[in-house]
Queue: 3 jobs
Job 1
Amino acid sequence: MFSIKTKNISKAYKDVKALKNINLNVKEGEIFGLIGPDGAGKTTLFRILTTLILPDKGRAFVKGYDVVKKYKKIRKIVGYMPGKFSLYQDLSVEENLNFFASIFNTTVSENYETIKDIYSQLEPFKKRLAGRLSGGMKQKLALSCALVHKPEILFLDEPTTGVDAVSRKEFWDILNKIKNTGISIFVSTPYMEEAGLCDRVAFIQKGEILTVDTPKNIKSNFHDTLAAVKADNMYKLITDLRALKAVQAVFRFGKSIHLSFDINVINPDEILSYLKSKEHNNISIKKIDPNMEDCFMKLMKD
Amino acid sequence: MTRENILIKVNNLTKKFGRFTAVDNLSFEVEKGEIFGFLGANGAGKTTVIKILCGILSPSSGDVSVDGFDVYSQTEKIKKNIGYMSQNFSLYEDLSVYENFRFFGGIYGLPRKEIKKRTDYFLKTLGLQDKKDSVISSLPLGWKQKIAFSVAQIHNPKIIFLDEPTSGVDPVTRRQFWDMIYKTAHSGITVFVTTHYMDEAEYCDRISIMDAGKIKAIDTPENLKKLYKENSIEKIFIKLIR
């Protein structure tokens, strides 16, 4: 059985087509990542799957239940962490957690095991108002509240947006622990490097799925040759490389430039002599493996 | 750094909210025309520092000047000389592109002729002349951010503060946005930028990493990597903050 199955889901807001014929199968027990920029349609898909809005067309199932006909059943078994911080800012950490537990007719102590790993980090601050927590702590509280009724599947809509790099890393460690307890996780993020931490990912752009696969397969399907290029004058380097017709993409990546090209058309030696003719100094051209962002940009272009 | 080239000068800056010390005895300088990356953990005090530098929050103690103006007594002069853009507050969604330029230009007291000239220049640079009368809400996020960046420069500021300008935009647009930052810095405007994308930290001339009200490290990305013997800013960040 699939934990999520969608068949040709479409949704429009007036004349904006937010989702176009989305077909996805999410397996039981996997961390499935929905990766794409703002406006790609991620939140719309989350809202359909958590039964908050209706699709215009197509059908979707969560744990085998139809999102339209069996919405009450689905609401009992999902945990949902919306993209916008939606806890009660004027309630304390503890009060928020108790409130969400009571909505699901349970108590914090009954499901303490499920939230223990993450909530234990918050317990020293349990009397603090939710509105006064830092970004990383708010995110942990929101996850605790989404978990407190021991859901079968977790929906996390951009849980790490605007969160610093350290808290992001901790958050993904926690997700892996949750996954090991058998809970399926459907998570979205605009940070491409987080895609590599999922079992499988779907890249989404302008309401359409670009690809669905494991991070490993997505990388091995990148068929161009990729090189990291450096020189003293990076500003001029990027302009000169873009002027080179035989290369396919030129993008800055941190301290180097990623250059993708067809090795049958141009080879690294030719690129090197071209750059020398443009009077660049300390040129380095190294062949590298693509990362998830390289792959996403390549798929965006096609 | 030569003295006359220093645009922001912060000396022993402290800011307390009640008993909580948000910014703890901070000292640093930012040079004219540099891209300065202001990184830090959530809740480290970055926003408090930016508010002080923009002249909208007074320090508890310490000396701070922006373009030679004092943050205690000359805040109105500071406001005339800075530009500010964040992801949350940027443009009026229900006004057109041109109306946004006109509104912000008006606030800074620019003559109408000058506003028109500046707007034409920015729209031409962005290739958006035909979108002049489009309502902001109808435009894609990436365009909005590029327009917001231009609007923040309508009054020709000496320095522009960018608070997480690229949060959530697609990877191609994110890089185009950085091309714009480079152009702006090349023209002599100082760029003070915060980001959670660690690869973007590498694009800055210098970066600082802040945690619990203090600056833990400040230097060029290259020097920091040598100092901490790491090959990426992300690793240094995690090392310092954890």
Job 2
Amino acid sequence: MELKPEIGLLRFTTAGSVDDGKSTLIGRLLYDSKSIFEDQLENITETSKRKGNEEVDLSLLTDGLRAEREQGITIDVAYRYFSTPNRKFIIADTPGHIQYTRNMVTGASTADVAVILIDARNGVIEQSIRHTFIAALLDMKHIIFCINKMDLVDFSEQKFNEIEADVKSLAKNVGARSIHIIPISAKFGDNVVDKSENLKWFNGETLLHLLETVRIADDYNSKFVRFPVQYVIRPQSDKYHDFRGYAGRVSGGKLFVGDKVTVLPSMLTSKIKSIEDFGNERYDAKSGDSITICLEDDIDISRGNMIVPSDNLPEVAKEFNVMMCWFNEKPMLAKGKYILRHSTNEVKAILSSINTKLNINTLEEDTEDKEIRMNDIANVTIKVASPVFIDDYKNNHVSGSIILIDEATNETVAAGMVVK
Amino acid sequence: MSDFKINTNHLKLLEDEAIFVMREIAAQFERPALLFSGGKDSIVLVHLARKAFWPAKIPFPLMHIDTGHNFDETIEFRDNLAKEFGCELLVKYVQDSIDQGKAVEEKGVNASRNKLQTVTLLDAIEEEKLDCAIGGGRRDEEKARAKERFFSHRDEFGQWDPKNQRPELWNIFNGRKNMGEHFRVFPISNWTELDVWQYIMHENIKLPNLYYTHKRKVFERDGVWLAWAPFMELKSTEVVKELDVRCRTIGDITCTGVTLSTANTLNEIVSEIAASRITERGGRADDKRSEAAMEDRKKEGYF
């Protein structure tokens, strides 16, 4: 059986606040695609009744923790799964209250597509700007805007056209890659799974159909191929006495047996002797593949090193800029020292300067305010104790992303995307 | 396979992700162990670990928390598997925790040692000085699990704090911890029950015969068929019958529901799962105890 991962799995994140009907939309997708099981439905029907709701509250499907059900809120990123005969979907569902930025950045970091809800009555508001900005910052392959609650604006084409124009100009402003705009009613199911009778003037696809068909394959022709070494495999057995393999996951583009490669940070060069995959002989490996590489030459390589094609090296940097999102309740310390994780590498880091802080509701830059608190996004300069091997985030998400860890609490306090 | 089109394209991505996580475990922790129950999810974990470190052996032991209420086949399968793949096997007994007075046997007809396993597990983690326990938990299994991280931090009491979890971005996993704390890591977090079965079929992974149809003495309780064992207490209305069944999950015998089925091959099982309208945990009595049963057990340190 041949595996073609490029059409099989789509990860998307959903953005919208409590009142936008986001949980209802997800519930609708699960329900209409028949992904809800009888015992789950029985369970939420009973809970809805007990709470005195007349209709089945589909949001109960996604809000899993006791406190969430009691308070009717979503605390954290929740992952949901559903399949159609064409694709498997992973939804990172992020809540819409105060810790929003932190959660959406987290949810979007593993997603290909962002689905952003806009209330048709209100059109593009501050939070739509924020959601779109974050989706573009995390470099989503597609952003799908669902103009929801069309039922409350009499399914008006004119209303939709107004919002569509605003969305297009916003998306252009924040540098979004590819956008799609769909009028829907999550509550009644219009254009979610089935084509709406009420929105006949709309010629586009339904949300589910778009999710099933939108192109998400990595660019295997990308020149930014990176192989961060995770683990060195040295079997202590007679049969594989001299085996020395470097285990890791290819990111961006493809590697071939015979490729000339450079090892960072040593800068030593060699050739790929073999690509090992559980006894299967392979000639190439592409972005996303977990493999083991053997080289022609005996070079000292360990975890945190990076194997890259010799004709396209990443920047070997001791100081660089990132767009950083702060996650922790404790504000960022100016000139603070943190542990920086970059792919499989870990180094000490100092936040040497805060360049601009961004108001993500208005997209205005502020160069005066240097106080970075939870959910803030800022352009900062980071200095590291030993070099890291970086690319612009837009060129490679693996070599272009970092997290910061507080040395005292071990908590992940920030995430950053490398910008040049 | 009737009207359900099997799509296996996504399995490769799920496998690549799980192998990546396995390697992060070996790199980031000093003393990890793979929690092995003899169930299909932990058998898949062993397969993924073999792939991750091939041609070397799996660089951590398997650990079974044995309730003593097992299907005999599970134990035999476990021992053979460890031998075949050259894995070190640690077995920790719930009976020992009971004998030491650390755990108290539940009473009544619904008595189960499922919850007691937590005590034995936490003791074992301390005794073996483990800093990471690898589990086969999946986010689709249960709604409290939907909030779980790949790398899930546990405090020095083994507790999970769902409201204060570390954000997990891209594929950067933060396994840093203080002395006495540990991690639970779930490499197949993003798999669904159907993914697991399709993968087993795709990779031709050997499973205990319990997963295939067989004749077994069973009885019905609260709408769920349970396997009968001599030590189980029956209500007066419950009747033991011998039927064609198979297990959809394998856990402690006292709380594992069985499915009436004549599915004899992986192909038939996959079709059956694909057509099923009830989740696999819908057949587990341990989750039926209350709406937040899993959340409560997990907070205390359950798998």
Job 3
Amino acid sequence: MLIRIVDNINLAEAYQYLQSPTSGAVNLFVGTVRNHSHGKEVVKLVFEAYEVMALKEMHKIAVAAQEKWILDKIVMIHAVGEKLPGEAVVITGASSVHRKAAFEACEFLIDELKKTVPIWKHEFFKDNSVWVNAHP
Amino acid sequence: MELKLFGVAKDIIGSNKLSITAEDFATVGELKQWLSQQYPKLQQLRSVAVAVNSEYAEDNQSLQNAYEIALIPPVSGG
């Protein structure tokens, strides 16, 4: 498995890692910065991570995915720092013999990442900023 | 020892770390209670977790063998 916190997402690197002659399917999810949120224009996002713990939690999720599906390889990469609309901020991916396992695992990886991995998204608008999800 | 702070918790407390004496708190729960009294705005958050040695900790967990403690406000990665 390839699990990383990086400054810049490299899609080619993720694909290269996942693909292999034994796999018939490579599935990649790429999360990107949206230019609007709650009806307001988003100028940028700034991501912060508790890196040592984030890597551990991502590893646990990848192991859980391996227990649920038969996968060839798994990728989980999250970016930190300032990201502009359109830029990639997260990749989850899986490869498998047939497509179903790779599709399902890929969705599981991103869903679980959002629940437990200690990474925080600071959303900047023109006039203010919020830590996403902080308040009920 | 140093309590690591992130995200909105860092903004509320006004620093990215807080010096604490782990011996003053028997458990994670006691530390959380003290923090929410010192920094009442933490009570307005959706959740506040504590990580001990970079693992999520339950309230009844001891801080005795802690070498790294962090406050984990609601996560929002992805």
